[in-house]
Amino acid sequence: MKEELRKCKKCLLPETYETLLIDEDDNGCNMCKTSTFKKEGIDWDKRKLMLDKVIEKHRGKHEYDCIVPFSGGKDSSYTLYYLMKEYNIKPLVVRFNHGFMRTNHEKNTQRVLKKLGADFIDFTSNWKIVKKLMFESFKRKTDFCWHCHTGIYSFPLQVALKFKVPLILWGEPLAEMSAYYTYEDDVIEWEDEEKFNMVRNLGITADDMWGMIHTEEDPIDKRDLSPYTYPKLEDLQKMNYHSVCLGSYIPWDYKKNTEIIMNELGWEPDELEGVPKEINEEGAKIECWMQGTRDYIKYLKRGYSRVTQLTNFELRNDNMSVEDAQRWIDNFEGKKPASLEIFLEYMGITEEEFNSRVKDFIVPPFKPNFEDLQTGKPAHDMDEWYRENNIKK
Amino acid sequence: MLKKRLIPTLLLRNNRMVKGVEFDNYQDTGDPVFASKVYNSQYVDELVFIDIDATNESRSTNKEIIKSVSKECFMPLTIGGGVKSIEGIRDLLLVGADKVMINSAAYNDENLIKKSSEIFGAQCIVIGIDVRFENNEYVLYKNSGKIKLKTKLIDHLKRMEELGAGEFFINNITNDGVMKGYDLNLINIVTSNTNIPVIASGGAGNFKHLVDAYKSTSVSGLAMASIFHFGDNNPIRARFHLKNNKVNIKEV
Amino acid sequence: MIGVIDCGIGNLSSVKNALYFIGAESIIIKDPSLIKSMDKLILPGVGSFNVAMKRLTDQGFVSEIKDFANTGKYILGICLGMQLLADLGNESGITEGLGLIKGKVEFLKSSDLRIPHMGWNGIKLNNEHPILNNVKLRADFYFVHSYFFNTDSVNNILTYTDYGFEFPSIVCNDKKNVIGIQFHPEKSQKQGIKILQNFLSL
Fold first, then answer.
1. A104, A222: one domain
2. Sequence-ordered alpha helix ranges (H) in A303-339
């Protein structure tokens, strides 16, 4: 099954990883090359000076110096910490809340915000609509997170417009984990409509989605799609918006960033479903309790999952050996999450229906084996997660 | 070297995009202008719009759609559906279409093909052909697959090329929307019976289908829709997959 | 102000839209007497060489364009517009072109490749020119043509493209102010738009 997939010999990312290009001469890949370029080919001193200018240009001129889109995870916590410590700015912290925040994660959010001191807007959209969006998105793409992808990247910009704050500072650049954007392009990565259409919204705009879920029997108010609607370009341009990634100005280092927020703010990692603690010391993806199911779908479609994603960074940065990484992958990937039943409840479908949908979306050349899957250990806080208790048999 | 083309098709009905299976059971798949912007940000090679209702009302809407799309998408645009007159072709070219697809009208108005090719240039005229495989041969259909024709496929190809067609857009109705792969046999028959570029449509469900069609036929481009509407795929991912499998596609 | 020549046979909206997108002020020129007051000229074109030259001649564009070129101001010919810049065209008989860049337009047929040459193809740099500043030279551009610009003057060839054989895809005159591009920059997405932006800044 897995042996059929070609992989990069250094970082073990498989050919089904989106935008991965395997180099047939040396079996390396474009992601490894870009990691090298990031260290050697970018003038980070010059980039830092550019950031100084951007901050000063906006300081004090509006109700807030900038908007910091925030989830409470390691990247946005570091972004907020860095900007406030380095520049002493007055930010408006904005969170689009996907509705699946775990308890330890909420504790982290409290620690970060109370230790740093900033105004915070936390918005959670209508759960009944979210369920419909999850279902439609799962049906068409087997990626049920459409509401989250679109909300996270649209809502902070809507807030920026409402408060008339043109500078929006995001965290890690896409160049860190894909080739949609590359370090070799030598540009500052923006979070703009082009990127939104290219990678964020799965090719479905809020308007499209309304047309897809609205029926005569079950009509949907167009306003219910507004949290997911990307603001009009003219409005953003009128305000001279500047929506950029901090990771284009300073070199992004997950390990170092997480160490800092752990030491300075008391931020704590948590356990993920299907992932050993030892390789998630940076606390990736601890904010969402749907992580287990999301990673499971990825495994079924593409033959790799969260463990591969985490070890690839260690491998690219020479922090782990290939043998160790492969051992983690073999022992932990490919298990069914205990929380799958929660997803099935939310969607009102059976596991057979789930499998049958995912089967249609398998990315060749991978071929999953639905029969031999073991169920993994539940996460320690699974009992705290919201249930609908309507499992369909 | 000339690259193989990746061409999303956008079916239009009542100002919305739709997608069906075997020319039936259409589902709403979004707004065509927004979708064009999405495809544009993903560096597709061309866009083909087909109006499946092709009524008089929809014709002016189609012009509005092309007009809006051509303001922001700087790549070739083809539009088809109910095209049956020189004025109609001129109108569409003037609002920003680069090519016009003629399907049903080609069967009873050869003069349209000849004249429009002379006036606008062969490269503007795409002949759309819908077929079904029945009783061991390919049978041509017109009017969105509703009317069966006696014309033979190879005769039609040769005649259209003679009259000045610039490109063929060939679709097997039975494969359309089914997402189980292109009809490679059909593609090979068409490419070996014409000297002009051939775009094949109908059947793409995953990237392997694209690789198979590009590598085992001499098709110039592949058109697709369901793979993007109903798959967790986008053209950029397709591009990387094709490159990993040694298909020559566009560099950006 | 950029003048976009309308000699009645081309679809101008793509060029207009692209110019608008990059913030260039442009007008469509139907009256040749307006040419001299333009800052730059674009000659787009779709169709056949002899029909286009006939219209340019009949409507009085030829001498105005030639004079404009002599002033040193920039002219950009696109696709058929690039071919019209040649001395001669060979489509349905021999026709005189504008003669602004040394060369002859001939049929593209070579080996058994399909005609027209339609789709995305690459360019290989032969001579530098500011119109290619910051353009990703490994990118592909959109071609659609059945004839090509043939010239022996290697100094006038900025880029080559391979379609069975290598033909000139971008050419310019000795003074470097008249440029011809065989592909459609206004249809070649980001890199094509960059070329137009460069033309605007020349």
1. yes
2. 306-316, 322-332
Residue A255 belongs to some domain of the structure:
no
Condensed to tens digits (0 to 9), the pLDDT of residues A286-326 reads 889 999 999 999 999 888 888 898 888 888 888 889 999 99
Average pLDDT, chain C: 92
Picking from B40, B70, B251, the nearest residue to C13 by CB comes out as B70
Judge contact between C179 and C75, C-beta under 8 A. yes
Whether the CA torsion B228, B234, B236, B242 is positive or negative: it is: negative
Distance from CA of B147 to the nearest CA of C (A): 31
Q: What are φ and ψ of residue C117, in 5° steps?
A: -75, 100
Angle between helices A206-213 and B32-41 (to 10 degrees): 130
> Is there a single domain that holds both residue A119 and residue A211?
yes
Summarised one tens digit per residue, pLDDT across range B206-216 is 899 999 999 99
Which one, of B159, B85, B78, lies nearest residue B123 by Cα? B78
Q: Within an 8 Å CB–CB cutoff, is residue B237 touching chain A?
A: yes
* A252 dihedral zone (left: phi>0; alpha: psi -120 to 50; beta): beta
C-alpha span between A18 and A177 (Å, rounded): 10
Greatest mean pLDDT among A203-207, A234-238, C7-11 lies in A234-238
- For residues A111 and A228, membership in a common domain is answered with yes
Q: Confirm whether A53 is domain-assigned.
A: no
Segments making up each domain of chain B, as ranges: 5-244
Q: A70 and A149: one domain?
A: yes
Lookup: tokens for C48: 């056949």
Range of the domain at A234: 64-248
**Residue B183 touches partner C, C-beta closer than 8 Å:** no
Asked whether the beta carbons of B50 and B20 are under 8 A apart, the reply is: no
Residues 6+ apart with CB under 8 A from C63: none
Please count the CA atoms within 13 angstroms of the CA of B76 that sit on its side-chain side.
Answer: 26
Chain B residues within an 8 Å CB radius of C119: 2-5, 45, 197, 220-221
**Helix axis angle, B207-216 relative to B184-192, nearest 10°?**
30
Query: What residues of chain B lie within 8 A of the CB of A215, using their CB?
Result: none
Question: How many other CB atoms are there within 10 angstroms of residue B246's CB atom?
Answer: 10
Q: B103 by DSSP, 3-state: which?
A: coil
List CB contacts of A362: < 8 A, sequence separation 6 or more: A300, A301, A368, B206
- DSSP element (H, E) containing B106: helix B105-108
Based on the fold, state whether residues A187 and A301 are members of the same structural domain. no
- Same domain (yes/no): A102, A239: yes
Judgement on whether residues A238 and A136 belong to the same structural domain of the protein: yes
> Tokens for A174?
């896409």
Assigned CATH class of C2-201 = alpha beta
Instruction: Assess if residue A73 is contained within a domain.
Output: yes
> Which residue numbers of C are catalytic?
79, 184, 186
Q: Of the candidates B27, B208, B232, which has its C-beta nearest A364's C-beta?
A: B208
Q: How far apart are CA A133 and CA A135, in angstroms?
A: 5
CATH of domain B5-244: 3.20.20.70
Tell me the C-alpha distance between B61 and B59, whole Å.
5
Q: Are residues A154 and A243 in the same domain?
A: yes
A111 in any annotated domain: yes
pTM of the model: 0.85
Domain count, chain A: 2
What distance in Å separates residue A94's CA from the closest CA in chain B?
Answer: 26
Tokens of C10: 């081309």
Which two three-digit tokens encode residue C162?
Answer: 């391979």
